[in-house]
Amino acid sequence: MRNIFKFSIFFVFLVCFLGCSKDFLELQPKNILLESQVWNDEVMITDLLANYYDNLPVHSQINNGERYFAELDEAVAVNSLESNMDINDNNIISYPYNRWTLWNYDMIRNINLALEGLDQYSTKLTPDKVNQFKAEFRFLRVYNYFEMVKRMGGVPIITNQLIYDYSGDPSYLAKPRNKETEVYDFISNECDEIKDLIGNNGSQTRANKYTVLALKSRAMLYAASSCKYNNQMPVPITLPGGEVGIAASMANEYYTKALSAANEIITSGNYALYNSNPNLGENFYDAIVKKGNNKEVIMAMDFNVGKKHNFSYHQICRTMREDNLSSSGISPSLNLVESYEYLDGTNGKLKGVGTGSNTAPGQSNWIYYDRPEDIFANKDARLYGTVIYPGTSFKGVAAQIQSGVYVWNETSNKYDRVESSVLGSLYSDGKTLTGLGGPLRTASEVSNTGFYLRKYVDPQTMSSARGVASQVWWIRFRYAEVLLNAAEAALELGLTSDALVFVNAVRERAGFGANSLNATTLNLAKLQNERRVELAFEDHRLWDVMRWRIAHIIWNGSTSNPDANLYSLYCYRVIRPGHPTDGKYVFDKFVAPNFKSPRFFQLGNYHSEIDQKVLDNNKLIVKNPFH
Amino acid sequence: MKKNDPKQRHRKRPVLRKMLKIMKLTTLLFFIALFHVSAKSYSQETRLSMKFENETLENVFSKIEANSEFSIFYKNDLIKNSKQVTGEFKDALINSILDEVLKSENLAYSIKDKLIMIVPMNIDELNITNQQQKSVSGKVIDQTGASVPGASVVIKGTTTGVITDNIGNYSLTNIPENAILQFSFVGMKMQELSVGSKTTLNVTLVDDAIGLEEVVAIGYGTQAKKTLTGAIGNVSSKALTTSIASTISSALIGKIGGVTTRLADGRPGGSTSLQIRNMGTPLYVIDGIPGTESDFNNIDINDIDNISVLKDASAAIYGLRAANGVVLVTTKLGKVNDKTKITVNAYYGLQGFTRYPQPANAYQYMLGLAESAQNQGTATTITQAELDKWKDGKKLPEGDYRSMDYLDYMIKPAPQTYINAGATGGNEKFKYHFSIGNLDQKATIESYYFKRSTIQANLEARLAKGLKIGTQISGRVEERHQAGVPGDDYNAVFNVIMRMWPTERPYANDNPNYINNTHSININPATYKESVTGWNTVTNRVMKSNIYAEYDFGFGLKAKGTYSYQYLGWTDDDFEWTYDAYTYNSSDDSYNKVVGGGNKNPIRRTGRRNILDKFSQFQLNYNKNFGKHSISAVTAYERSNNDNTYLYVHAIPQNNYIPTMLFAEQDVLTDQWTQQARASYIGRFNYNFDGKYLVEFLGRYDGSYMYSADKRWGFFPGVSIGWRISDEPFFKALLGETISDFKLRGSYGQTGSEIGVNAFGYLSGFNWASGNSVFNGNLTTGISPTGLPVTNLSWVTNISSNIGIDFSLFNNKLSGQLDLFKRKVTGIPAAKYDVLLPSEVGYTLPNENLNSTANLGVEGLLSYNGILGSLRYTIGINATLARTKSLETYKPRFGNSYDEYRSSTESRWSDLTWGYHIVGQFQNQEEIDNYNVNIDGSANRTLLPGDLIYEDVNGDKIINSLDQKPIGYSTGTNPNLSFGLNSSFEFKGFNLVMDFSGATMQTFIANNELKMPFSGTNDGNSPDWLLEDRWHHADPFDAASPWIAGKYPATRKNLTNHSNFNKTNDFYLTNIQYFRMKNFELGYTYALRFVKIENGSTLRIFTNISNLLSIDNVGKKFHIDPEIVNTGGLVYPQTRVINIGFVLTL
Questions:
Q1: What is the DSSP letter of B190?
Q2: ipTM of the complex
Q3: How many helical (H) and strand (E) elements, i.e. helices and strands, does chain B have?
Q4: SS3 for A46?
Q5: Which of A46, A51, A436 sits opposite B784 (nearest CB)?
Q6: Which residue among B759, B764, B839 places its CB closest to the CB of A105?
Q7: How confident is the model at residue B123, as a pLDDT?
Q8: 8 A C-beta contact, residue A265 and residue A213
Q9: A261-283: string of b/e by CB count within 10 Å (b at 16+)?
Q10: Cβ distance B359 to B316 under 8 Å?
Q11: A158-176 mean pLDDT
């Protein structure tokens, strides 16, 4: 009996312990906010914006799609154990039609949800505040639509959430593609409507009135130029429903809108080209990476100690890397380097360069330079600000770019090339054979072309180490682009004098004299080159050559086309004791050893492929041309 | 004992006993200083109260026997003239009683646990009266060949006898010439043998009943093996402990039918992927409490009493998480009347790799580079003169041309040691098992090791009649230590071996003070040392306490309550240091620090995870026999919750010395917190008639936090039946002679799996901390919508069916099992694709429970116990064929017949690899030029002799995705067909164990390092065979020189998307087949007699070799271990270990 009593006590305790409470399985998640916690809390709504800004679509930017810096003609990819590069991007037989596809409707839906949520639930916020938030969400939406239209052509414009009723037949939700022109008009109208509601005055990281205008000027310029140059093609690329292709007559209207949006920014006086460093090359570099008192930047994706990126870790020049892994993920191409003009306005093609064939004829063209950097003398200062080339340094450390030596051979009456695969190796004369910065022909983590990237690489100590990482921002809109947008629109509209004011301002900052271009020398080709050198590695190149419809010409897949092949420039020290050339430097140019296939952009790439799934899901969606 | 030992004197007995006890304890304390045990035997703690009044000794002895568990052996002659005894005892120990009652007799006694022998005081008397007598000795074993300790050996017609010792040996002296010995043991048939003139008499006792009365752990209870109706595999501690394995899963390889294994990564402390019938990771239940795979793997092997594997519907009693079967582990506990047994296990071993691909030497490497340039038509800086120097391999004034072998440099044989000491025993009131163990396994890489310490304390006390209370307390500390290399510290090492160039050396000028600035300093192994790069330690600290109370109502009903609390603290501490790299300048003998060389990225980080698991259960058991009917029933309620918090801090330390972090150095903080909760009602009912007709119903009503409130609970039933035909009279009459047992059984049941659903997927809201932005200089944490709430999705239902037979033949010598099984998985989440939701709505239809697959197969086992003179042996084989088949998907539709061929999964094996078939290699350039199928997508311009010719399956003259066909089984998974062969041989004191395991129907696809020269895109080295056995020009500098054939295509660096490599093809694919000797153990057991008393103490010494040999088809081809998964071969393979050890049992 006593035992049963004892046991009963135990049992009672046990039952209390188990305490069959009803909500035992009803757990509260520790990382999910409920709808009710968001819409009346400005901080939470801002948090939602933070996510959407962070997720703006991108092709290549410093913390996302880094490898695509090396899929065009600006750079080749370098083999690296830890970078995000893919050296197969040096061997793209032809760009797949879906390489730049974007069908970003989950983001569109999220934004539409937010707009409806604000309307429905944000009862405790002032109407002004609600409208300001809504304007900002609409900016993000219109940014997404621009990213889609420039890749896909016209896409369905969805401005409210589409709710499926689970009836089994969702066909009522299907919307056809809007015309390309309708999407651009939508962008234009939205920008006009929200620019005075959006607030955020003075912010360089959230959209304000001028950000909206900058987007509008870019979008309208794209609309105008792709309209104009598409119609100048032998067979314009169009779809019967207007999903692709805009009537030629529309071009001027879009150029006008682009110019006026740009003008509104320019005349506001809120922005200016960065011009704080008397060293023009450094100044151009600073214009991108300096955050303090930089009136050039209209909107950037910013980073700080809580949000960092590893772009510098991946891209730092080999000789100044601070981590034991990674470096030199992309090697800027000689093509880009040569597109920087001489300050006298002449073509940027480098002088006295050999063919690298290691024969007397191959060496016949050589100019013997005293110092490696001399070959780059008197060039556009933006070259220095963008690329690390032989004879320059970064963060106070010399790049030490030298591929090998040429040793005079009396018997064959030519110079024999000697290279090493060991960085920092010495020749038997005790001087450098191969520099610590390479280049090497097949190695990883070292330049393949003879150049390193400077733009966007962080100047801060240790920022190329993973631990510290980089806080350099990524510029989405800056004043120089607005000036170039304005210049192009003005030129196309026949307002050449206006165009000259805009473009010469940009060129003057690069070291060209005042009025370096004039009405006779200014043409679209000049502006195209201007955009290439000013905006290199800023995610403009691909979209620019597409809207001008020159992509299929410059990247035609031909091994004999100098634009479709990417070149390297290797620097050598000359050894010919007793001869005037001894100790001088010579350069050889050849297709970058890593680069395997000429760039091949086909007409079907102008409008990216719509995924088969999207077509299956909505029969109203028509395919893009050539697909 | 040892009644016949003439030297034995009972007066000395207590002293000897005490001495022995002290010796036992000192032995134990010698091994574990803090381990304290009170080991008492029955005789020492049983106190008797009795009263005798003028009674004969015979009566006295029977009274003692009646009031205790003692058995008293004596010869009638000895006491027939004894005086009558009077006395009263209160709570007296047996020896004080015996001392008193025998004080006036010329008799002595000896006690062995519960056995008392009465012997003459003066042994000479005995000898005089038994001059004609002789001695006999021998061993008692069971039909499995295992020795039978504690069996009684009695001279027929007398009460004279002995009990066998711990290894089954006995010896009797002074027996009559014509004596007949009776051998008996509980549960076994008594045997009588006449001694005759023999002096050695070995006996095999066979089980009394048909089949063992052995009980097997099943869900929520145990069951006799003969009445089992489910497919349940079982392995006892004895079979486990013959494998030297650091984790339990590795010890199970090949031991249980239906269990498949693959040891893909052999790193110290690593575990084997273990699956039941290839169904996926099973549920592990340890002493009734669900645990994790890691909990299971890290139990000390010597703490396990047995492991049961529930393979079919018998798992349904574990409901929602038991879809992949259940592994039940029971830890040891002493039994009533077990004398205290102290065991010390220890071994020391040396480990080396089974296989690892040999990297090419410097000459092969340089030649390969030259050929690569030649084959790609690019310039090279390599000259023939240089190649010659590399071939010579000498250090010359102009450079160091010695080849560096980084495999040899990095990998060295490494020791492992293990020790475990434990005490097990029990009496009426108290049963226990204590143990403490330590494993120290060094890796074959400097600075890398695994250590584990475990304690286990299992206690059960009988508090009162019917009331028991018990506990299992276990704790362990696992430490995994590595050098602080960036990334996965083990993988990094294997990368190094294949990625370092054999032309460069780890130290500048071989001076160990200066790390050489190699082509990539990150993979310079000179830095892979704790003294250079810092350290990384991952520690698991686990403490688990179960406490339970059970009350037996006395009429077949028992109630039991259990509570369990487990705390797991996981820490990952990492301190990576900065270091410099140097170049050596031979012209002035200087070492120059390289700017930008070395590592300037110091890291200090710590991750802490705390996991609390709480479990409580209340259970009622009812067992009753009514004549030939017996029923047993279980019902239970249980619930568990889990609370998992994680904190991670990353800092950039200022120096290499101080690991404590400052706030200012920190740059990352991660904080996570997740919870789980589950509750269940459980029921099982068994009925059997006469042990012949067996039926079982079971079920579980299970609730999980994963689902929304109205979809939370599910019922998972199971049923199984059995028919022991061999008990039927007609069967006995017909086949009873040969077939001793034959049972038919079948089962059918349901389980669930919580797959395809996210916790809280039913809620609509926003994920916190998802993306962020810096707004105006301030970091703003992002939130993102969680997406459409998923409310219509439920668990996946698994329907398992099984039919099987159990049989034993030839007096149980041969026994076996055969099972056919199928597990149908229904309701696998998928989207209704025919409801075509336009992509522009921005969301996709939530998944619903639509598709189904099945795992099906057959498994069987056979075991034979044989005796050949003094040799006893057991041979067991088992094999499992288990495959996965996709049954049906939601309304499949195909665009065309090819699409159906390629994409359909309807009723198809799903464990297949699709790829391209290679029909040959081009033999010369003309063949390439004339070949009319476009293989490389570039009109074959990129092809060279030796390149692969793809089969143009559809004949469209171009190789593209339409030319794929099935070319292999699944990769990286457990094998579809696996088998085990276990054998043990015992001869006198020797025993030999050989375990083999084998597998096939699984595919390995070589990739990266094993496929592409120079490590693919990683600019490294290659296995020597890849650069050696290749197509190449006779002269690497003359492209006009003739081609020389080889096995592999011509060497080309950095051409990873070449047609040779860019498609999954069967040139680089192997259907793995292996048969390996997993375990070889040779031991000798020596009965310790140095104490002269208490024989039963034994010392077993053994040597054990694991992975001694392997017969397989990837050794020659890729020089890899057949079980690895890593496609580049860069992984810690299985090790070959040679151990020596001992087991001391006192």
A1: -
A2: 0.92
A3: 19, 56
A4: helix
A5: A51
A6: B839
A7: 46
A8: yes
A9: bbbbbbeeeebebbeeeeebbbb
A10: no
A11: 90
Contact A302 B777 (CB under 8 A): yes
Contact present, B1078 and B962 (Cβ < 8 Å):
no
Q: How many CB atoms lie within 10 A of CB A75?
A: 30
DSSP annotation of B708 reads -
**Long-range own/partner contacts, residues B651-660 (CB < 8 A, 24 or more apart):** B651/B603, B651/B604, B651/B605, B652/A462, B652/A467, B652/A468, B652/B602, B652/B603, B652/B604, B653/B575, B653/B602, B653/B603, B653/B604, B656/B534, B656/B577, B656/B578, B656/B602, B659/B573, B659/B575, B659/B604
Which residues, numbered 154 to 173 in chain A, qualify as contacts with chain B under a Cβ-Cβ cut-off of 8 Å? 156, 158, 161-162, 164, 168-170, 173
Q: Residue B1: what pLDDT?
A: 36
Residues of chain B under the 50 pLDDT cut: 1-14, 25, 28-40, 123-131, 209-212, 1091-1095
Return the pLDDT at A23: 76
Residue pLDDT, tens place only, A544-602: 999 999 999 999 999 999 999 999 999 999 999 999 999 999 999 999 998 989 999 99
Nearest to B423 by CA among B808, B131, B718, B25: B25
Show the tokens assigned to B1028: 């050696």
Q: Give residue-wise pLDDT tens across range B1057-1112.
A: 889 998 999 999 999 999 999 899 999 888 766 544 444 678 889 999 999 889 99
**Residue A390: cis peptide before it, omega within 30 degrees of 0:** no
Three-class SS state of A224? helix
B153-202: pLDDT as tens digits? 878 777 677 777 777 888 887 777 777 888 877 656 777 888 777 788 88
Whether residue A461 lies within 8 A of chain B, CB to CB, comes out as: no
Q: Identify the three-state secondary structure at position A484.
A: helix
Q: Between residues 24 and 83 of chain A, which touch chain B (CB distance below 8 Å)?
A: 24-27, 29-35, 37-38, 44, 46-51, 53-55, 79, 81-82
CB contacts under 8 A, B 204-263 vs A, are: none
The DSSP secondary structure of A9-62, one letter per residue, reads HHHHHHHHHH---GGGG-PPPSSEEEGGGTTT-HHHHHHHHHHHHHT---SSBT
Judge whether A350 and A337 are in contact, CB under 8 Å.
yes
pLDDT value for B519: 85
- pLDDT of residue A169 exceeding 90: no
Choice between A298 and B124, residue whose per-residue pLDDT is larger: A298
In the chain, the amino acid numbered A23 is D
- Phi-psi bin for B1129: left (phi > 0), alpha (psi -120 to 50), beta? left
B465 to A3: CB separation less than 8 angstroms, yes or no: yes
Q: Which two tokens stand for residue B168?
A: 């089954």
Burial environment of residue B331 by CB neighbours within 10 A (0 to 12, 13 to 18, 19 or more): buried
First to last CA, chain B: 16
Kindly state the tokens that stand for B758.
Answer: 């996210």
Q: What is the pLDDT of residue B1091?
A: 47
Give the gap in angstroms from C-alpha B912 to the nearest C-alpha of chain A. 26
Which pTM was predicted?
A: 0.80
Q: What is the total residue count of chain A?
A: 627
The two three-digit tokens of residue B915, written as one number: 């790829």
Distance CA B482, CA A83 (A): 25
Characterize the bridge pairing of strands B71-73 and B115-120.
parallel
**pLDDT for the residue numbered B811:** 77
For A358, A359, A589, B582, the CA distances from A363, given in Å and listed in that order, are 7, 6, 11, 35
Helices (H), B861-940: 897-903, 925-929
Which residues face B478 on adjacent strands?
Answer: B452, B540
A103 touches B at CB < 8 Å:
yes
For residue range A473-513, what is the model confidence (pLDDT) as tens digits?
A: 999 999 999 999 999 999 999 999 999 999 999 999 999 99
Q: How many helices, marked H, and strands, marked E, lie in chain A?
A: 18, 16
Per-residue CA distances from A509 to A146, A268, A385, A525 (Å)? 30, 20, 12, 20
